[in-house]
Amino acid sequence: MDRTRLYRDGVLVGEDLPIAEAVARAAEPGAVVWFDLCSPAGEDMALVGRELGLHELAVEDAGTDRQRPKLDVYDTHLFITAYAAVLAGRRLDLVELSVFVTENALVTVRESPAFDIEGVVRRWDAGARMARYGVAHLLHGLLDHVVDGYFGVLQPLDEQIEALEEELFEDGAADRRGQYRRTFDVHRNLVRFRRVATPMREVVGGLLRRGADVVPAGLVPYYQDVYDHTLHVIEWTDSLRELVGNVREAHQNQQDIRLNEVMKKVTSWAAVIAVPTLITGFYGQNVPYPGSGEPSGFWISTVLIVAGTFLLYRVFRGRGWL
Predict the structure, then answer these.
(1) Is residue 81 located within the same domain as residue 168?
(2) Do 193 and 237 meet the contact criterion of CB atoms below 8 Å apart?
(3) 309 in the same domain as 228
(4) Which of 239, 255, 271 is the C-terminal boundary of a domain?
(5) Which of 216, 238, 255 is where one domain is finished?
(6) 191 and 64: one domain?
(7) Judgement on whether residues 183 and 97 belong to the same structural domain of the protein
């Protein structure tokens, strides 16, 4: 459902106006308008783009999925692509958000209703005293909501990795294949998450570098706080990637160790079996030997087989190979 808001001189004066009316009000002195278009129809996007003077390339990008998070600068407006992230169990959901920033209008284009736009509105209402900064205030609340949502992804991932580390050295862990699968899922989610979280540093940093034309002096500390949060997110993400990489390496090392143990046992049993094979093979020669054709030969070979087998078994058992 499309939504609109109209501010005049820092005060909220109207909500849920028709798109055409909101576009007309945007030209009034002191007016700031927010347009929220969820999977917009072509005519609504065309109307907003035409009346606000949005660049055709930016409008095209807003209608194209899987854009890289970025900040594009045009003559009359800025265009931002960002992603909200939500971790649902072991599945990472990403929702693309396109944002047009003009002098007196903020346009958000969502690909699906999954984006928590109500959370953004609550942030704006909680900081209503900052609404005097106009579009910059609305943009800050939006970016702050997106970046803070990243912490809600990293915290569960951190807990999942911690659980994998604890399972790693548990004695008699049964579901080894399940552990590998969970480790792979965490690694895949981190890779996908990093692709959308890391570029946000350049997005927020680019806004700060543009100075007072975009970020008024009174809002610089707030944008700097969002920038610091993006750095924290990146550092945390890289740390978790290193941890999950260590877990995957430990899994591989454990597999190698278990394989070596199996090979030692197989080799040890082969050595034990080789003793009777050797002795019976020796006594099976077609040449005379001590005890040949006599009962004593049978008993001598039997004693050698039992003694040799028992001796090897004790030696291998003592070394932990059996």
Answers:
(1) yes
(2) yes
(3) no
(4) 255
(5) 255
(6) yes
(7) yes
Total domains in the chain come to 2
Q: 293 and 267: one domain?
A: yes
For the chain, what is the HEC assignment? Answer: CCEEEEEECCEEEEECCCHHHHHHHCCCCCEEEEEEEECCCHHHHHHHHHHHCCCHHHHHHHCCCCCCCEEEECCCCEEEEEEEEEEECCEEEEEEEEEEECCCEEEEEECCCCCCHHHHHHHHHHCHHHHHHCHHHHHHHHHHHHHHHHHHHHHHHHHHHHHHHHHHCCCCCCCHHHHHHHHHHHHHHHHHHHHHHCCHHHHHHHHHHCHHHCCCHHHHHHHHHHHHHHHHHHHHHHHHHHHHHHHHHHHHHHHHHHHHHHHHHHHHHHHHHHHHHHHHHHHCCCCCCCCCCCHHHHHHHHHHHHHHHHHHHHHHHHCCCC
Domain that holds residue 270: 261-318
Same domain, residue pair 193 and 311: no
Residues 6+ apart with CB under 8 A from 88: none
Residue 167 near residue 250, CB atoms below 8 Å? no
| Closest to 18 in 3D by CA, of 31, 33, 29, 30 | 33
Full-model pTM: 0.78
Per-residue pLDDT of the chain (322 residues; tens, 9 = 90+): 678 899 998 888 888 888 888 888 888 888 999 999 888 777 778 888 888 889 999 988 888 888 889 999 998 899 999 999 998 888 899 999 999 999 899 999 988 888 889 999 999 999 888 989 999 999 999 999 999 999 999 999 999 888 888 877 765 555 677 787 888 889 899 999 999 999 999 999 999 998 888 899 999 999 999 999 999 999 999 999 888 888 877 777 777 767 777 777 777 777 777 777 777 776 665 556 666 667 777 677 777 778 877 887 777 777 766 6
